[in-house]
Design brief:
CATH topology: Dihydrofolate Reductase, subunit A
Order of helices and strands: HHEEHEHEHEHEHEHEEEE
Distance between the termini: 40 Å
Strand order of the largest sheet: 6-5-4-3-7-1-8-11-10
Number of strands: 11
Number of domains: 1
CATH class: Alpha Beta
Structural class: alpha/beta
Number of helices: 8
Largest sheet: 9 strands, mixed
Amino acid sequence: MIPMQPFSTWLAQAEQHHRQTGRPLVSLCYAQSLDGCLTARRGQPTALSGPESLSFTHWLRASHDALLAGVGTVLADDPLLTVRLVEGKNPQPVILDSRLLTPPQARLLTRHHTPAWIATAQDVYAERHVALQSDGARLLHLPLDSSDHLSLPHLLDCLGRMGIRRLMVEGGAQVITSFLAQGLADLCAMTIVPRFLGGLHAVETTGGPAFPSLTLPELCEIHYHRLGDDMIIMGKLTRLSH
C-alpha cells in the first residue's frame, strides 16, 4: 500500500505557501543507497528502488504539478519523467540546463505529451535555442548566481508565476545539494535501499566553489514507511538560519 499520509496533507498546504511566498512548495524526492549514493558512477544510472517504492515515486510524481531534474540526469538516463505505475496526471517536466546541452532527440522532447520547460542562462547558444524550441521545448531564461549556476530563487519565482504550486525535485546530486544548501526545499521523501554503492553521493558534502561552506537543514515531523525491502523517510525540512 502506498503511504499517502502525511505527504498528501503537507502538499495540501501548497496554495497557502504560494500565497505567502509566490513560489511553489518544493519536495526533494529521490532514492539512495545505505552509504548515501545515487548511483555507482557519475553519468551512469543505477537502478535502486524496488517495485513497491518505485510505485511510491510515481504516486509522488502524480501529486505534483511539475518535476525538476538537472541536465546531467537527462544526459545519463534519458528519462521520460512521466507517471506510469499509478493512475494520475503527468507533471510538467522542468530541466535545469544553463548551457542548453539537452539533445533534441531526448525522450522528454520526442515522446512527452507536455512540452518540456528548459531553464537556461539568459545568454544562450542561438542555434541550440532554435533547435530545442522547434522540438517543442519552452525556454525559461534565468540569471546566474555568484557561482555561475542558474539562480534557483529566480526559477522558483518564475514557476510560481506560471502556475506551479507543487514542485518535485528528483536530482541529480548537484541539484539536490543546491536546494538543500540554499534552504529552498520544504519537504523530503527519501527512499533508502539496502545496498552499498561507494559511488556518487546524493549530497555533495566536500564543498567546492559552488558550496564553499555547506550548511544543511534538518528533517522534522519525520515518518518512516517500509515498502518491500526499501525504507521511506519523509518529513519537513527546516529553514536555514542566516
